[in-house]
Amino acid sequence: MPGKAKSRRGEVRGEARAGRPAAKAQSPRRSGCPVSISLETFGDRWSLLIIRDLMVRGFRTFKEFHDSGEGVATNILAERLRKLTTAGIITAECDQADARRINYRLTEKGIDLAPVLLELLVWGARHEHTAAPCALIANMAENRERVLAEVRRRWRERDATPLLPKFSDAEVEGKSEKRGRKG
Amino acid sequence: MPGKAKSRRGEVRGEARAGRPAAKAQSPRRSGCPVSISLETFGDRWSLLIIRDLMVRGFRTFKEFHDSGEGVATNILAERLRKLTTAGIITAECDQADARRINYRLTEKGIDLAPVLLELLVWGARHEHTAAPCALIANMAENRERVLAEVRRRWRERDATPLLPKFSDAEVEGKSEKRGRKG
DNA sequence: TAATATCAGTTGCATGTTGCAAGTGATGAT
DNA sequence: ATCATCACTTGCAACATGCAACTGATATTA
Hints:
The structure is a homodimer. By secondary structure, chain A is mainly α. Chain A has a domain at about 35-155: Winged helix-like DNA-binding domain superfamily/Winged helix DNA-binding domain (Arc Repressor Mutant, subunit A), CATH 1.10.10. Helices cover about 45% and strands about 5% of the residues of chain A. Chain A has 8 helices and 2 strands. Chain A has helices at about 35-40, 45-55, 60-65, 75-85, 110, 115-125, 135-140, 145-155; strands spanning about 90-95, 100-105. In chain A, a hairpin with a 7-residue loop joins strand 1 (about 90-95) and strand 2. Chain A is globular, with a radius of gyration of 18 Å. The relative contact order of chain A is 0.12. At the A-B interface, helix 1, helix 2 and helix 6 of A face helix 1, helix 2 and helix 6 of B. Chain B binds a DNA duplex through helix 3 and helix 4.
């Protein structure tokens, strides 16, 4: 079972420190705003990249996430998978064919993050230098409903075919200025 | 001018450490994925909350952000405002009527994050215990285009009327289980 | 004009988080 | 039996965060 830590530092802490992000549900210092609460649940970089990889790359396992090219540390990856499982955004199940492996999957709650990921994708491709093909992203931006429906269909049917490839790292430098980009 | 630090720790660092999120544009370890790059630009919790406050609460000043009820530290707030300015997501201009104040504003690039924030809001209200009125969020979810158009209109016309109130902290506990929520 | 308050930060330091690299235990392949 | 693989755990160094006090500039008040 993932995340079965023998002990955790800070576990015996008293009251949560004022101002520190309330990672635990019972922390008393928490805004009631849905955006704030969402960010507490999954808002860190690595969690969102795990969700991305599950959603659009068809990844399922710890090793696939680790080899995504983003440079995540194994202890952080393990910790995020545990947190996302606890939050009910993903599930973990042992691979029947290979007991070493754990297969992760988005839950209903998790797949509902598809619109968030799609908007991040569209924004990033429009405003930053990326390795994403312009035509591909433009098409996704024009057909949001269709893309989201397809994301959901692949999730429902456990179809691991990637919706997006792994974008090369090396292509980012040297791309021309984006149209309309300011600042 | 905001963020004009006398000195910054880490500024004389050599090569960026492998695996550390590439906060600087020239870092060599960066995925080409738009989602990953977006998260590097503004993906941390406090940055997103600043953008939220500019976008839907009509906040403009350092003090307003600080008093948002989220518990942000002043050094972190100052740092995030500087980074968001550098990234071209917000601008800072001195208040003509009061030279002590700096008024922050979303840029074109920044207001384009409205769909991301709206999806976070909708997801959070649907899947977590929040203090947001259900009818209000349901209405926003049903009329995404209209809400986004209104967000843009208020931005364009520098209309600081809040689109959303500050949700109380105290209401989060004790709300009934959300419909359809699992985990 | 002097005293006080406000604004936007800065600072030093303690604490928490992140990430490296080595390592572990269970399992599968040879 | 040996080796490789998978999903982690571990100890520790480096970095990030946040507290509380503080600063300089500016506005308000007496």
